[in-house]
Amino acid sequence: MSQMVRIALDAMGGDHGPAVVVAGAELALARHPESEFLFFGNAAVVGPILARHPALKSASRLVHAEVAVRMEDKPSQALRRGRRKSSMWLAIEAVKKKEADIVVSAGNTGALMAMSKFELKTLAGIERPAIAALWPTLRGESIVLDVGASIGADAEHLVDLAVMGAATARILFGVDCPTVGLLNIGVEEVKGLEPVREAGRILRERQPSGLEYLGFVEGDDIGMGKVDVVVTEGFAGNIALKTAEGTARQLAEYLRSAMSRSLGARIGYLFARSAFREVRERMDPRRVNGGVFLGLNGIVIKSHGGTDAEGFAAAIELGYGVVRDELLARITAALGRPGKEPQAALRGAAS
Amino acid sequence: MSQMVRIALDAMGGDHGPAVVVAGAELALARHPESEFLFFGNAAVVGPILARHPALKSASRLVHAEVAVRMEDKPSQALRRGRRKSSMWLAIEAVKKKEADIVVSAGNTGALMAMSKFELKTLAGIERPAIAALWPTLRGESIVLDVGASIGADAEHLVDLAVMGAATARILFGVDCPTVGLLNIGVEEVKGLEPVREAGRILRERQPSGLEYLGFVEGDDIGMGKVDVVVTEGFAGNIALKTAEGTARQLAEYLRSAMSRSLGARIGYLFARSAFREVRERMDPRRVNGGVFLGLNGIVIKSHGGTDAEGFAAAIELGYGVVRDELLARITAALGRPGKEPQAALRGAAS
C-alpha cells in the first residue's frame, strides 16, 4: 500500500465553505484511498455534512474551531480574530505539529499567507514566500511563480523563485533539469525591469544545478510552454494569471454563442460534441486549481475561493506528489548557494 | 466628401517591410478613398512595389530614405544611425511639419517611441508617453494603457493615463463619459502597489470630468469589458497583453486539433464552419492591430511588427477616427487639471 498522506483541511474556507470542502475531500479519497483528513471548522456545521459521507467520515477526524476567517478580512484582522482559534490557523498548526503533511484551504489568500508565515516561518534565506501556480500549456503544464504572494522583487528573490520553482517542477513533472525563464517585456538583454535583468545575469553566472536557465520569456510564451518554470514578481504574475483566465472565459463564451446561433452550427455541435467537451476540459480552470505556497517550513496549498467540489479535489490532489517526493526537503537542499556546502544550507534551514 | 486624411508610412518597418506596408495601404485606401499616403523608404525597393498598385500610387508620394531602422536596434543605436535620414525618422517628421496627420510604423517599438519623443516632444505635464492598445472584450472593445512604453509609474502618471485613455475612448467608442479602472491584484482598497492605490484616491477625489472612475479591476475583468479604459503601468500592461494573445493562440490550437481528431468532429466542423469562422475572426489579433502612442504632440500608431497586409490596414484605419475627432486637441484639453482654468492648461500645452 502507498504511503498514507495526511491532509489538514480548513473546512470553513472559500465562498461555499464546508459543503464544497467535504465533497471535494470525498472525491480525493475515492481517487486516493491512502488519505487521512483532518477537518477544522465549526463542528455544529461541519459535523452533519460529514455524517452524510460515511466513507469519508471513517477516514477523517473533525476538530472544532470557533472562528472562521472571513474572505474580506485583511491579513492583520484575520490574525487578530483568528489566531489560535480559527479553522485556518488550526489547520496550518496541524502541519507545524507534524500531525498533517499538507494543509489545503480555499479561504482568504492574504490571511492564509500571513498565518502560514507566522506559524511555519520561512526557510533559511527566504524572506518572502511565493505562490506557484500550475499553468496548462500546449506542451503540458508549466509552473508560474510568484502569482501574488508579494509585490515587487529584487534580483536575489527572483533567483530564489527560480530555484524553488525548478525543485517543484522536478517533482510535479518528473523532469531532471527543468527549463526556467524570467518573465519580461522583451527577450533582448537590454529590456525590462532592472531586477529582472540582474537576475538573468546571476542565473547565467551561477548556473544553479538542477535547472536550465533559458533567458527572458514574454507573456505569450507562457501558454506555448516555452519553459517549465516562469519566474516573475507577484504583481505581474497575478495579472498574467488572471488575464489568461479571463481570456479563456471570454473565448469559451464566443464559442458557446457562435455554436447556438444557426441551425448548421447546432447540428455541427452535435456531431463534434466530444471534441467540444475535450476543449472545454482543457480550458477548465478547475483542472489545475491550487497554488502551492513555496518558501515555508511546510506545504500549504491554496484553492480558488469560488471553486466547486471537483476543483477543491484537484487542489488536494496536487498535494500527493508534493508529499511523496518530499518537496520541502528538495527545496531546502536546492537553496544551498553554490560555494556553500549543501550541509551548511540544510543546517541553516533546520535552525 | 469626407475630410482628407494624410498618412505618413514608414515603408521599411516591420518583419516584412514594404511588401506588407504597401499592400496594407492599398486595403485601407479601398475602404477610405479620402486618404493620401506619404511613403518613406528606400526608393529602389519601395518604388517598384508601389508601381504594381496604380490606384494606390496615384494617391501616394514616395520619399527616399537611405537608412532603415533595424528591428533589433536599441533606441540609442536607432537614433544614432537613423536620425534625419531613416524612413522612421522622416515619417515622424512629416507629422511634425504638418505634412501628415498621423504616422504609422510596424518598426522597432523602442526606436519609434524614442524618435517620436525626440521629434514631437511630449505634451505639457506629460513626462512619459504611453502606448494604448485596443482590447476585444465580451462587451465590444476596451482601451488598455500603457502596454509597454515605459516601466513603472507614479500615481500622477497613472492619473494622466486615465485622462488620456478616456479622451481616446470618447473618440474611438463614441461614449460621453467612459468608465475607467485601475489594474490591480485585488479589488479591495488595501491591495496592490502603492502608486496604484494612491492613483485611486486621486481619481476619487478629483473626479476628472469626462470619465467615470470605477475602482480597481483585475486581469480577468479586462476581457469581460468591465470598464472602457484599463489603466496600468507599462510592464504589467505589456505582460497582460502578450499573455492574452498567447492564451488566445493556445485555445485556437486546442480547438483546431480537437476538431480534426475524429470523424464526428470533422463532420461537425463542416456543419458549423461559419460559426467557427466567426469565432476565429473574433479571436484574430489582426482585427485590433495597432497601438496608439499617447502624450505626444502628434499621433503615432504602432503596428505589430509581424503583421500581414490586413493587420497593417487595421492599424492605418485606427487613425481615421483619431484624426477626424481631433484626439490630440481633446487630450490636451482634458489634461487641464481641475482648479486651473482650462485656458491655462491649453496655453501650457501650446508652449
Structure explained in plain terms:
The structure is a homodimer of 351-residue chains. Chain A is built from 15 helices and 11 strands. The first copy, chain A, is of the alpha/beta class and 351 residues long. Chain A has 2 domains: 183 residues, Isopropylmalate Dehydrogenase (3-Layer(aba) Sandwich), CATH 3.40.718.10; 151 residues, Isopropylmalate Dehydrogenase (3-Layer(aba) Sandwich). The longest helix of chain A has 26 residues. The two termini of chain A are 34 Å apart. The C terminus of chain A is likely disordered. At the A-B interface, helix 9, helix 10, helix 11 and helix 12 of A face helix 9, helix 10, helix 11 and helix 12 of B.
Report the average pLDDT across residues of chain A.
88
Number of helices of chain A: 15
Helical content class of chain A: 40-55%
How many strands in all of chain A? 11
How would you sum up the global shape of chain A? Answer: globular
Order of adjacent strands in the largest pleated sheet of chain A: 3-2-1-4-11-10-5-6-9-7-8
Structural class of chain A: alpha/beta
Which CATH architecture of the largest domain in chain A would you pick?
Answer: 3-Layer(aba) Sandwich
